[in-house]
Amino acid sequence: MSNIFNKQGDNKNIVRKPRNISKWISATLFKRMILMGIILVLTIFFTAGYVTYITYTNSMENCVSTICVSDEFISYHDKPEMIEYYKSKGYDYERDYAVPQQDHLNFMVDAFKGMSRILIIDITGEVPVVMHAANYKDYTPPRDLKEGDEIPFSQLPPALAEQIRTGTVDTYYNGLTNDKLLGVPAFMSWDQARDKDGEIIGVVIGESSIFNVLMDALFITGDSGLMFLLLLLLIIYFTNRNLQLNVVKPVEALINATESYEKGNYELDYAAFKSDDELYHLATSFDEMSKRIEEYTKEVAAVAAEKEKQQAEMNIAMDIQNGNLPVNFEEFCEGKPFSLFAHMDAAKEVGGDFYDYFMIGEDRVCLLIADVAGKGIPGAMFMLICSTIVKNTARHFKEPNEILNELNLHLQDNKANLFVTIWIGIYDLKTNKLRYSNAGHEYPIIYKKNEGKYTLEIEDHDIACGIFEYDYAVGETELLPGDRIFVYTDGIPEAANAEGELFGNDRMMDAINSIKDTDPELIIENMRDAVTAFTKGAEQSDDLTCLCFVLNDQ
């Protein structure tokens, strides 16, 4: 919206190209997509790594413990006796026993996911000796160990070597080590095995290369990541498409219409609008204003009355402004557990204050009051734009500070150097919570039934919208049946009498606490009467606007 206003500086007109809203939204979505993508990749990576780690370690534990309680150790350890036994029976040891046993061990390696190799090591001698080495069928280790190979203690993990030396081999599962047996970083598990007499005769070592783990993690990450990335791209696409249709195109149409109006050839593309949203109503207001100004200009040209022309334009702006302020209080509150009323007394024909209220869904009511730093037609136009942006933005954002963030973003670098103070609150009828944000506006006044008085809610508020980029805060309070909230512009505390004395916050609080009415219309009427009595007919210097929201007592 930044090109609607003319910025004056150094006594020269500075012409700036309007912000390309389409590119801005695309760039913003791209940045957010990158951030979401990074978070997604990290989440999938750590999840896949954790799942793979659990799968591998559980598999190794099960395999090693299964072999340790089997007869393979006794068979390999008592190999000479087994050979003599088979010869005495007329059998071939290798063919009838060793090969089937080796096939059985190889099958076990294949059966347990993640195992790269199992080593059966005889530790009854001075140096550990390989009794059997079973490799996974698709795995070729960097170092090939076979039956009869000696394994120096330096090749074993220090913990295992120390246990073998002291004869205290114990169970050890799921350790990550730079495995010198495999020659690569690996997971390693081992367990003791005893012979039929209960003596420790060997160790079963299960090994799994870290590269196996990483490859499985990458496969899991790739499959899951592709699915989530596709989902993310679809979300980004439809979100961008929705914003393009509902916000970007209508705003660009308004910008183009404004530029064409400045050139004296007003054109508005109604095809860019939906007939049921606020931007469409703003467009029709612009259209109506342009037509009425054009008609009146022709009349003024006939009578050559420049002053009357300006007054007519002011009247048109006043009509537009008044038409933009909602007054359907009874209709809006019908069937709802609250009542509200609002009123604006403009200091000039066209004021810079405005208020609004509307439902967000079925259970949340949005209240806002604002004060534009400007009067006359520029202030009124700025007011219309602010009101429309807030109402349209509220459809897409849930929190009041998010709405202010978007409003502030749209108002940056406006060429008229205007800004607006605004208080916005969203009350949830289900939770009784009022969440609100304050952009440089007056402090709200809240009445709590259990306290029996109005209190000025003084707290830090943020800067006005339209000055520079800012991240607005959000506050929260609870409003129960019988509670009320009164919001206003600075026209009340800064109302001055003939001597220049201000009404002030103290008189304002005394006045509202003296009001016994619970009807929001009467509360506002009594407050206006108190200000009028104080100023004693002095000229009104600023707009006086207030809104009262009352939760029906049950």
Rg, alpha carbons: 40 Å
- Helix-and-strand structural type: alpha+beta
Tally of strands: 17
Largest sheet: 5 strands, antiparallel
The percent of residues in helical segments reads 40-55%
How much strand?
A: 15-25%
Shape: elongated
**Mean pLDDT across residues:** 77
- Beginning-to-end CA distance, first to last residue: 45 Å
Strand arrangement in the largest pleated sheet = 4-3-7-6-5
Description:
The structure is a single chain. The chain has 13 helices and 17 strands. It is 45% helix and 20% strand. It is of the alpha+beta class and 554 residues long. It has helices spanning 21-68, 72-77, 79-88, 93-111, 158-166, 210-262, 278-303, 306-324, 329-333, 376-393, 400-411, 504-513, 520-535, and strands spanning 8-9, 12-13, 117-122, 129-135, 172-179, 184-194, 200-209, 338-345, 353-360, 364-372, 420-428, 433-439, 445-448, 453-456, 475-478, 484-488, 544-551. The chain is elongated and about 135 Å long. The longest helix has 53 residues, at 210-262. Strand 6 (184-194) and strand 7 form a beta hairpin. A five-stranded antiparallel β-sheet has the order 4-3-7-6-5. The model is unreliable at 1-18 (pLDDT under 50).
Question: Topology, pairings included?
Answer:
Blueprint (H helix, E strand, L loop, with lengths): L7 E2 L2 E2 L7 H48 L3 H6 L1 H10 L4 H19 L5 E6 L6 E7 L22 H9 L5 E8 L4 E11 L5 E10 H53 L15 H26 L2 H19 L4 H5 L4 E8 L7 E8 L3 E9 L3 H18 L6 H12 L8 E9 L4 E7 L5 E4 L4 E4 L18 E4 L5 E5 L15 H10 L6 H16 L8 E8 L3
Antiparallel strand pairs: 1-2, 3-4, 3-7, 5-6, 6-7, 8-17, 9-10, 10-11, 11-12, 12-15, 13-14, 13-16, 16-17
